[in-house]
Amino acid sequence: MTLRIAEIFGPTIQGEGALIGQPTVFIRAGGCDYRCSWCDSMHAVDSRFRHEWLPIQADQIMAEVEHLSGHQPLMVSISGGNPAIQDFTPVIALGKARGYRFACETQGSVARDWFSDLALLVLSPKPPSSGQVVDWTAFDACISAAKGAETVMKIVIFDQRDLDWARDTAARYPDLPLYLQPGNSETDPSKPVDPQHLADRMLWLVDQTVGQGWLRPRILPQLHVLIWGNKRGV
Amino acid sequence: MTLRIAEIFGPTIQGEGALIGQPTVFIRAGGCDYRCSWCDSMHAVDSRFRHEWLPIQADQIMAEVEHLSGHQPLMVSISGGNPAIQDFTPVIALGKARGYRFACETQGSVARDWFSDLALLVLSPKPPSSGQVVDWTAFDACISAAKGAETVMKIVIFDQRDLDWARDTAARYPDLPLYLQPGNSETDPSKPVDPQHLADRMLWLVDQTVGQGWLRPRILPQLHVLIWGNKRGV
């Protein structure tokens, strides 16, 4: 059985969310059931890029992860696209046997048994600005599938409407640790990123949450965008 | 009994280390046994500013924290200066009774029984560029004093010599979670901070650690400097 993989890269630091700053190798799965208006990984989503998604066996994937990490076990992040549309059971089993730990980031539209093998499941329900509509029954099934695995929720915020939506969503899941991050409206990898603009977006989001007395979410930027812009493979 | 407090401010987000992004009220203690060459909080260190350090009772401190947080329990960070030269036992006891949790950041030169009452003890041994010399016996006493409290190590890195020192220090404490952050060489609150420069310092530090196969430390910037520059009270 093969998986469609858009890229495997690292080790670099995790740029966002609960594991921010942590040395990580990334496995980016090809294919997605969503089409977010502001998607920053269209090369792993749009079927136009399908010829770039190599069909690759689980043992070949782990061989590449081990090669990149110099055989030092570390955190492996499975992202996409939506990695949950494929079966990562064998990759995780091989990796865990060698001391690697796995995190997965998914929107929460497809539940998988292998979520329970993760060290961390990051569920990122997409806010209204994405143009997508969340299926909450599927989302709840993802939480159930994680069983004992640590599960957190991360929501990208582009505007006030997204923020209002995030508050409603947070209220629905009072027990999930919550991370918010300002959306990145510049997704063209050839264009430079303005660090001051990223700082301004963070300031706005902190003002609109902590500054308004909403003290639950942790507010974090996308460090990789600050450091490397929208370049791929870092 | 009163404590000398340079400032109490927030809620804002924790800008660095293990709790990065977390809504926090800060209690900055006045007074320090160190004089780091690049200290970014001289207003809480240099005795020139001593007249600004209000002698204040524990219940008044907690009253101010509760006022600032709108009586919503949250994380309180005790920093300085070196807060360990004073006795925060009564502040922490009052706060914990009301649901607040406490983190403390100290260089590890003075051990205190109240470390064991913390949710998180951040030990920041100062590298060679600081001009200070670490007393490792005192540092070990801090780790012992924390008992069950979660303890992490954070080291600020200005140059290659600091980084070599951090690797040796990390090897001495294999069980402490480790955070590295690039040093901020511009500490004048009236001067603007260049976000691109901060991004470049992060890139250097990631290259010199993860890029060289050192996969243990988490690498994080000072978000508050990115967002607010060197302004006080944010």
Automatic annotation (TrEMBL), chains A, B:
This protein's encoding gene: queE
An MF annotation (GO) of this entry: 4 iron, 4 sulfur cluster binding
Biological or metabolic pathway of the protein: Purine metabolism; 7-cyano-7-deazaguanine biosynthesis
EC number: 4.3.99.3
Entry function: Catalyzes the complex heterocyclic radical-mediated conversion of 6-carboxy-5,6,7,8-tetrahydropterin (CPH4) to 7-carboxy-7-deazaguanine (CDG), a step common to the biosynthetic pathways of all 7-deazapurine-containing compounds.
GO BP annotation list: tRNA queuosine(34) biosynthetic process
Keywords: 4Fe-4S, Iron, Iron-sulfur, Lyase, Magnesium, Metal-binding, Queuosine biosynthesis, S-adenosyl-L-methionine
UniProt record similarity statement: Belongs to the radical SAM superfamily. 7-carboxy-7-deazaguanine synthase family.
Residues given in the record as Mg(2+) binding sites: S41
Organism encoding this protein: Paracoccus amoyensis
Residues binding [4Fe-4S] cluster, per UniProt: C32, C36, C39
Cofactor binding summary note: Binds 1 S-adenosyl-L-methionine per subunit. Binds 1 [4Fe-4S] cluster. The cluster is coordinated with 3 cysteines and an exchangeable S-adenosyl-L-methionine.
Binding site for S-adenosyl-L-methionine: W38, C39, D40, G81, S124, P125, K126
Protein name: 7-carboxy-7-deazaguanine synthase
Subunit structure and binding partners: Homodimer.
Cross-referenced InterPro entries: 7-CO-7-deazaguanine_synth-like (IPR024924), Aldolase_TIM (IPR013785), Deazaguanine_synth (IPR017742), rSAM (IPR007197), rSAM_sf (IPR058240)
EC top class, as a word: lyase
Listed PANTHER family: 7-CARBOXY-7-DEAZAGUANINE SYNTHASE
